[in-house]
Amino acid sequence: MATAFRQSSRGSGACITDFYDVGSRLGENTCGSGGEILHSKRTSDGAEFAVKKIAKLGSWEGKSQVMVLQRLNQRNIVEMVDWFEDADNLFVVMELARGGDLFDKISNVGRMSENQAANILSQILMAIKHMHSKHVIHCDIKPENILCMTSDEDVPVIKIADFGFAQLADQGCQAMKHQGTLTYSSPEIIDGKAYDSKTDMWSLGVLLYSMLAGFAPFGQHESRSRQMSKIRQCQISFNYQAFRSVSPDAIDLIRKLIVASPQQRLSAADALRHPWVINNKKHSADMDALTGQIKSL
């Protein structure tokens, strides 16, 4: 690895290899938007971290990720610990998630119970609410970018990661740079229109559908043009076996997120007040209390 210095969170001239032993890639599919994810250990105490190595290529995108993460401070958003750069690359040191991502979890279980999905969704909503209050639009909310901090929990603590496509939109402004993953992209994104934080809420509706069904509403095995047509028309179906046991409240929340008009979509604060989220959080609290009582017997 080339010596990484020039600018960093530790001041000009600091080198990542002075503070961290940077190793190999974390898994086969750990190339977030614009970079690869490497395992590292802090030399002072052996603590383990993930390092995102981003080729600069004359682009401002790498530095913008640092700017975005410096704005954010919330327990369900991956924390940036350090950053370094040299002439060719930017190195962003982040906390390490040991439980894989939500895509792996959905793939392993097929579909989640409503209680599991609501617990995860409420954590994501808290993160998105914080992001939007700081005028950050993530632009790529999808299962692969939702990290599980541990692998031994039925409902893990999760964190939103990969801010490679994130946009900063000052109050009252809209963003214009169009990027993200088609399956989770809103109509305004695919049509090249100006967008705001509500584009993340569309993606969240697609994510909730995927957690409850085990597959996305806009077929990933269809042609790109067919997917785009279904997205523009909000053409989603609940006529699948997976939805026969899903509550009307859950379907109502999905319908209020996957809406063509951004102005009509729920905000993160609105979604946190939705009956399905509130009732499932109450159920989780009741079950935790019951489990505690049983353990004390």
From TrEMBL:
GO terms for molecular function: ATP binding; protein kinase activity. SUPFAM superfamilies: Protein kinase-like (PK-like). The keyword Nucleotide-binding applies. Residues 20-277 form the Protein kinase domain. The keyword Membrane does not apply. Keywords: ATP-binding, Nucleotide-binding. This is Protein kinase domain-containing protein. It comes from Cryptomonas curvata.
